[in-house]
Amino acid sequence: MTTSASQEFPEARRVITIETDAKTMEKMRKEGVTEDGFTVYCDEAERLGGDNSAPSPMRYLSLSLGF
């Protein structure tokens, strides 16, 4: 059975693949590299055992919602 909605908007398949590499550095600092060469760092506040040298993972998450 076919509905009018499926006739107007045929089913399309879209596949998105994102590859990254992440590694732990000193203390709570992490480094992430995307497949196209972008490098980002994250860290935690000193009170959580980090050096506060980069945004925390949660700050990156909140930034991504704004983008």
Helix-strand layout with pairing:
Blueprint: H1 4-8, E1 20-24, E2 30-34, E3 39-42, H2 57-66
Antiparallel strand pairs: 1-2, 2-3
Short description, anyone?
The protein is α+β, with helices and mostly antiparallel strands and 67 residues long. The chain is 22% helix and 21% strand. A hairpin with a 4-residue loop joins β2 and β3.
Describe what you observe in this structure:
This protein is 22% helix and 21% strand. It has helices at residues 4-8, 57-66; strands spanning 20-24, 30-34, 39-42. The protein starts with a helix and ends with a helix. It has one domain. The model has no long low-confidence stretch (mean pLDDT 88). The longest helix is centred in the C-terminal third of the chain and has 10 residues, at 57-66. With 67 residues, the protein is α+β, with helices and mostly antiparallel strands. The chain has a three-stranded antiparallel sheet, with no helix packed on it. A hairpin with a 5-residue loop joins strand 1 (20-24) and strand 2 (30-34).
Feature tags:
single chain, 67 residues, alpha+beta, 3-stranded antiparallel beta sheet, 2 helices, 3 strands, 22% helix, elongated
Structural class: alpha+beta
What is the average of the pLDDT values?
A: 88
Tell me the β content.
Answer: 15-25%
Oligomeric category = single chain
Unreliable residue stretches: none
- Tally of individual helices: 2
Termini separation (Å)?
Answer: 40 Å
Query: Strand tally, please?
Result: 3
